[in-house]
Amino acid sequence: MRCYKRGCTSAEFIAAATPLEGVFMNLSKKLKGDPRRDLLVNTFEAYQRIGVEMIGYEQGKKPPRLTSESLFGSKRPDGFFGTAYRRKGWLMKVFEGNMTANEKEFFGEWLKTT
Fold first, then answer.
1. Each residue's pLDDT tens digit, 21-72
2. How many CB atoms lie within 10 A of CB 88?
3. CA 27 – CA 32 distance, rounded (Å)
4. For a FRET experiment, which of 2, 5, 33, 44 has its CA 20 to 30 Å from that of 16?
5. How would you class 23 by CB atoms within 10 Å of its CB: exposed for 0-12, middle for 13-18, buried for 19 or more?
C-alpha cells in the first residue's frame, strides 16, 4: 500500500485497508474449495499483520523481527510489508494467469504443502 511506503501511521494504514476487507472476504467466499483461496487469505493476513505490528511499534513495542531502518531513523515492520507485497504479487500472477514456467512449478509445489 502506498501509504505505508510514505511512512504513514497505523491509523492511516488501517483506514486505507478497511474498505478492502470486504472485497477480500467476498472473494474468499467465492473461491471456497479453490486452491487460490489459500494464497488470497494468506496475503490478506499478511497485510493485517502489518497493521498489528505498526500499532505495537507506535506503542513502543519493538517488532520481534523483520524490521529495518526507515528514512526517519526508526524501525518499522518493513519485512512484514515485503512479505505481504510479494504474496500480493504472486496472487496477481495466479489470477491473471501470467506466471512463468518456473513460477507455475513453484506454485504447484506450494499447493501440495497446503
1. 888 899 889 888 887 888 888 888 888 888 888 888 888 776 544 444 443 3
2. 17
3. 9
4. 33
5. exposed
